[in-house]
Amino acid sequence: MNRVLIVGIIALVHPNDALSPSQIKSKIVKLAQGTQNGLNASPRTSAEINKLCDILKPSPQRKPALSSALNGRWELLYTTTTGNSAGKLGPLVGKVYQEIDLQSLRYLNILELGPIVAKLDATWEILAPDQWKVIFRSLQFSILGFSFPEKDLSATGIWRMTYLDDDFRILYAKGVSQRQGRTSPDLRSDDKQLRSGKENNDNVYILRRTP
Questions:
Q1: Distance between the two ends of the chain, CA-based, in angstroms?
Q2: Were both Cys, which of 1, 11, 80, 99 would link to 108 (CB 3.0–4.6 Å)?
Q3: Full-model pTM
């Protein structure tokens, strides 16, 4: 059968499979717009983004957990979590950034909401070429530049990185309470969810490099 015809049939039956990585990323970014980091995404939008994440493999960085491409500042575009890591603070939703410094083994999860800034400080251990154990150390809030005392944390999270290139990341994460030995779907442990005992799948986090 003619190769052009085969490609055309595949494109009709599985239109997303015929897209290039840059086209898939653009489609994900477009779908994530207006969803408030995924919190307001419709089931249809979430399902479409999940499909695109599955298609966007393998990662150009074959060992993403070891790659220097992780270094820098990243903006959260979309997540399936409904916790603070999605930028939710009460009824409001802010911008979420991740700052990774490979040299100092330091990771910051930053929530910016008007004059309020929350910083979650962490480090990590490499478990596998595509996996980190993130160790959360402290949480600090500031308002209008005034910093409140840090709150020490005793929780860890598992990051499974499925895609990484120079400007785009996809990872799946769940938190682990060292105190109770259970898992929570957020990037940090959520005591209320841990107490409920509810089973949850890992949450996806999609991030784009930002200055």
A1: 48
A2: 99
A3: 0.83
